[in-house]
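[09:14] KT: can someone run the structure on this one? pasting the chain below
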Amino acid sequence: MLSKSAVALTDEAFAKVAAKRLVTEKQAVGELRDVHAAGYANFLGMAGRHRTFHTPSDDLTATGPEILEPVARAFVDAARKIVERGDAAFR
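[09:31] RB: done, structure tokens below
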């Protein structure tokens, strides 16, 4: 989930991550609701979508290092680009 202003940054940093990107201007989900409600125009984050996400049945069969590592690396890359580029990271 990301703001419209984070599309280019996300496309760049998450190019190798096969995930559905949901662009929002009016609402967000999960903890990003609070970020959006606080007035931050630029944001990106993630939310789980599999059937057992955050339920008692959610276990390691739905995740693991091979899934999480590329996502974590993409978030690090995005954060690095934000630090290096400042507001220019968001177009």
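[09:33] KT: thanks! Residues 18 and 47 are 14 Å apart (CA to CA).
[09:34] RB: yep, looked fine to me
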